[in-house]
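TEACHING EXERCISE
Course module: macromolecular assemblies
Task: Read the component lines below, then compare them to the predicted structure of the full complex.
Student: A.B.
Group: 4
Components provided:
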Amino acid sequence: MPETTYLEAIRQAMSEEMDRDPAVVLIGEDVGVYGGAFKTSEGLLARFGWERVIDAPISESAIVGAAIGMSYAGLRPIAEMQFIDFIACAFEMITNFAAKSHYRWGAPVPIVVRGPSGGGVHGGPFHSANPEMYFVHTPGLKVVCPATARDAKGLLKSAIRDNNPVLFFEHKYLYRRIKEDFPGDDFTVPIGKACIRREGRDLTIVSYAAMLHVSLDAAEKLSKEDGIEAEVIDLSTLLPLDRETILASVRKTNKLLVVHEDTRTGGIAGEIAAVVMENAFEDLDGPVRRVTSLDTPVPYAPGLEEYFMPNAAKVAAAARELARY
Amino acid sequence: MTSTLTREQHLELYYFMRLNRELEEQMVRLFRQNKIVGGLYPSLGQEAISVGTAYALGPGDWIAPMIRNIGALLVRGFKPRDVLTQHMARYTSPTLGKDGTSHFGDLKSRHVISPISMLGDLIPVMTGIAMAGRYLGQKIVTMTWIGDGGASTGVFHEGLNFAAVQKAPFVLIVENNQWAYSTPVEKQSALRDLADRARAYGMESAIVDGNDVLAVERTTREAVSHARAGNGPVLIEAKTMRMLGHAQHDAAEYVPKAMLESWKQRDPLERFEKLLSEKKLWDAKTKKEIDERIAREIRADVEFAENSPFPPPESAEEGVYCEGCHTVEADWQRPKEEVMPPRSSVKAEWPMNSYTSNGARPPAGARTAPKGKPGKKPARAAIRAKVGR
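Instructor-supplied answer key:
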């Protein structure tokens, strides 16, 4: 069976869902004739036509607003942000309109807002962001950050079928770098369920998206060089957070390191640390540690960006220190 | 111009306008008794717009009323008790006490979308419903309202531009009541007529005297049929005056007294009552019957609201997510096969038929006005003269 890239997995998920359900439509900038800036929607216009693959003006608020309206009429729109940085332009629509709709008046908003996030590709301050935490702080949303091609496909299908507004952050560094061999049949991956990607006994590393791969690299290094066996958890969904999987692992390893590419202050590591303090304080044999990006915008120059972001060496160093406790 | 409405329809318009006014007056009394939990945003003097516009729609059409459009909610079939329990934060309210004021709706039967406080958001949202309706093969029109202040937002621009590009069956009522809280319209826009914005989006527009319910109804009906026929969205500017403060707490001392006095002469209810009498569409007995019916309905619903419980505090935790509590289903009015492969498949290239800028449009002078254009220059001039701006 041929290997499927993370990017192709996303394209397949949309195409298969559009084949399955005529209520699924795609709206965004350059998603139609051009097939999307990263070609995630290549071929969809040719297959599904102008009514279902809609090239919109450069109006992120209108794109998300129209998607919300379509969902009220029973459709299941996917709204694409060309780069996820531009989700800031639709912040109001997502946080005030979509997120509060069901709570306020019982009207579900089954939309997906998806787009390429993350750094490591020298995109600079406006094409590299990890804006997930603005939205994790917004009750009513679901926030999904897949790390593998299989998850990208299965989680996007779940997101499209979900009755709530789901933000789907695709890590652009993974688009063409990650490939997997998985059955192409119709499968979904549940939202809100973390996954243990590597078993270990000495400490738990919690991560997601591109940093999962950095964490796995670090775990291999630790095993080979230090005999430290790290358990690596892939959150895959940030909201709702799978507390149980994290807590169960911490109860086993007694040590926790959180790794994320998002900036430090207000990142998910803080929330996870609090959850562990509240529920598993007695199980901890050391302080909760985190490896994150710096509290700065994402810089452009390769050397600056490398300095800004976590990498396997930084993760391994933090893990070694934690393992010594 | 004469109205094509029947006598019964005239009386129904009166009923809704009077009910709108009496209900709000009742709520002022409740506010003074501290029974209204939050703010109260009056529509005194603007009832003809809420009622006349909503009245021009068909039952399958969709609306999203704004804060001063209680009249539109009543036309759409909501009862005074819905409005009262909302304002009084009772558990029997349409939102179970989760939200107040006119922030409620009904997706399934009344096709009413709950507004939010962020102005302009409803424009792309209602555009989306209009696009979905067209996609599903329904012949629906969607409508929302916005004020002169709300028309200054960025999403107003994004939404109208998108609606026009999509030729969405959407009608926007710009309720120009001259004041956005304490700020006069001159500080919102340098335009003399907010309707002129429509031209910038390539959409049709009309200006109407917002205190003349028949003119409002007629203009809206024309706009709705224009949009329903697939000719694109329409913006109607209804010129009126906010006769009270922004909300109950606001004495509106910044509004010149003479301005209020002059607008008092144009009260939409008084004008319509006079017209009904002049046209002999009712007599004192009929008016009394309608007024008594309204008083009865409001009395019963106030009693209902006052006897309704507040929500149990722990219900604050409920309903953030929709997990299996609703079915989300589209109402298909066309064969689904039309939008599924192979019938949906197209050649993925732009169908350009000329290489002038902005597609194939000839210069403006060469364009012919579409049929049934609701915005007519003479009418605009007449209204402008009346409004005296």
